[in-house]
Write a structure and sequence with these properties.
The chain is built from 13 helices and 23 strands. The longest helix is centred in the middle third of the chain and has 25 residues. The strands form 5 sheets. Strands 5-9-4-1-2-3-10 form a 7-stranded parallel β-sheet, with helices on both faces. The chain is elongated and about 95 Å long.
């Protein structure tokens, strides 16, 4: 390289992406110390409220090794746009003539690297996990053949400018401040930004969401999952455990999962209390990222797979056949714990409390509070109160949650709990059969989940219910006459042939609106 300066693109979209840039800057600082050049961070500010302020970012860059910070300004650049940002970076490269330009290996970084290297007619080394200077040349280590081998790649002889995308997770910011550490604004407002693209909308990343690196439980899927559908089994187990999904290189290359889920030398390092590794061979590139995990459970049909050498528990089985069974057992165990927590009178505000577990389950299934509220017949405010342990819900909420998760409540309830529910069901059934207005259509069904009745209501009279509300679901079908069904003070008028299904815990009343008797078929489902 005729110019030994090394640049790094500083991603200002949020703190997480900016940390990636600082990690890459740390490696650039190490290399520039060998070349005798300077390091520089390149910032392209936007006007989005979510973007970091460039003044504060520039100060952090200087403290983490940037000798210079170049701030590329354009009055018409509102949001991060790869086409416009690439144009500005290329102009800065032409003006300042660095020898190397690094981009953190994100979706934006990859696109910027591809665009700028093509516009500069320069070489690009992709997916670098390490770099070293050898005889004046930068030699990069990059995964190849699905991560099975690590290739050493360099630029062609005589190269004066080179670009690279760098995996940021294997490096850390430098503790050596920049010299002189100054920031310089470069105004490129005279550049005509590319036309044809229009920002329609954007949504900032939700604050407080736990990252893969911070998760206490991680489920990792490998090439042995076979397909995108097979990899879905990994997601299901992670959701059941309230954990995060991880992956080795092959699933990422096959687009079964996003790049952000990659674990290993080419991806992220995780330190969960529990790590489940499904259908992963155990190549060193992967195991380097999980070595500090607490308990490692490995599932592989090859008894000689290297992953078993570091696993605490090894399961010799086809992961595609084993994971559904594992997931079902995990769901039952989680629901059993929730049942125990619900019975406990002492409020636990730890990460394993009832509310925290509900939140983990919801986030693991990618449900919003609104979605969970709808699935359990509650309100989003109710779900928020449960998750914050401000409210202890009824057992019926737990049963509806189990159904939403596709779990038979009978599989996790203890015998005494099942017996109590059966007794309650039998007593309610007996009360109905003794009422003159109920005609039993399912005799001897006091211990059954599903029961049917014929209800007769006198003309223009209110029905005298046995119970105004109870656990389960109810289905009403009008045979004769007009019926007014009031659900939680809200009336619904049903004509003959019309029906309504509702949560039986909602207070409900029936009334005949006809000059004749109103007859209804009522089907009850109780857990």
């Amino acid at each position: 390289m005729s110019n030994h300066d090394i640049w790094v693109f500083g991603d200002l979209r949020n703190d997480r992406f900016f940390e990636y840039s600082l990690n890459v800057l740390g490696k650039a600082k190490e290399l520039s110390g060998q070349t005798g050049g300077k390091t520089a961070m390149v910032l392209v500010p936007g006007k989005n409220q979510e973007c970091l302020l460039w003044e504060e970012a520039a100060d952090r860059c200087s403290r983490c090794g940037a000798d210079y910070v170049y701030v590329l300004q354009h009055k018409d650049l509102d949001a991060p746009r790869a086409d416009a940002m690439a144009l500005m970076i290329c102009r800065a490269v032409s003006d300042k003539q660095p020898g190397l330009v690094f981009f953190p290996m994100t979706q934006l970084g990859r696109e910027l690297a591809a665009r700028t290297s093509r516009m500069q007619d320069a070489g690009l080394i992709a997916d670098c996990v390490d770099m070293a200077m050898e005889d004046g040349l930068m030699v990069a280590t990059c995964p190849s053949w699905g991560g099975r081998i690590m290739a050493r790649i360099t630029f062609a002889e005589g190269t004066t400018l080179g670009f690279a995308t760098v995996a940021p997770h294997g490096f850390s910011p430098s503790d050596q401040p920049g010299d002189p550490g100054t920031a310089e604004e470069l105004d490129y407002s005279q550049l005509a930004l590319p036309k044809g693209l229009k920002l329609l909308s954007y949504e900032p990343e939700e604050a407080g969401v736990k990252r893969l690196e911070e998760a206490e439980t991680v489920v990792v899927g490998g090439a042995g999952m076979g397909s995108a559908d097979g990899f879905g089994l990994v997601r299901e187990l992670a959701a059941a455990l309230g954990g995060q999904v991880g992956a080795t290189r092959p699933p990422v290359l096959s687009h079964w999962v996003e790049e952000e889920r990659l674990i290993g030398q080419t991806g992220k390092t995780v330190r969960p209390r529990l790590l489940v590794s499904a259908a992963t061979s155990g190549a060193v590139q992967y195991t380097a990222g999980i070595a500090e995990s607490g308990l490692i459970v490995a599932i592989n049909r090859d008894a000689k797979a290297p992953i078993f050498e570091i696993a605490n528990i090894g399961v010799e089985a086809d992961a595609k056949a084993f994971l559904p069974v594992f997931t079902a057992k995990a769901k039952k165990a989680v629901m059993r714990k929730l049942a125990d927590d619900l019975a406990c009178t002492v409020v636990d505000v730890s990460d394993s409390s009832f509310g925290a577990t509900i939140k983990k389950l919801r986030e693991g299934h990618d449900w919003t509070r609104e979605a969970l509220a709808q699935a359990t017949g509650q309100t989003p405010e109710f779900i928020a109160s449960v998750e914050s342990d401000e409210l202890s819900p009824s057992v019926s909420f737990l049963l509806r949650l189990a159904r939403a998760l596709g779990i038979d409540p009978g599989t996790f309830l203890r015998d005494e709990e099942k017996s109590a529910i059966r007794d309650q069901r039998a007593k309610a059934y007996a009360k109905r059969t003794q009422s003159y207005s109920y005609e039993v259509l399912t005799p001897d069904a006091e211990n059954e989940h599903l029961r049917a009745f014929m209800i007769t209501i006198e003309s223009r009279k209110d029905h005298k219910p046995v119970e105004y509300k109870h656990e389960g679901e109810e289905f009403v079908f009008v045979l004769d006459g007009d019926l007014e069904l009031t659900l939680d003070s809200r009336p619904h008028v049903l004509k003959p042939g019309e029906s309504k299904r509702f949560n039986s815990e909602i207070p409900h009343k029936l009334k005949s609106l006809s000059d004749m008797e109103t007859r209804c078929l009522v089907v009850l489902y109780t857990p």
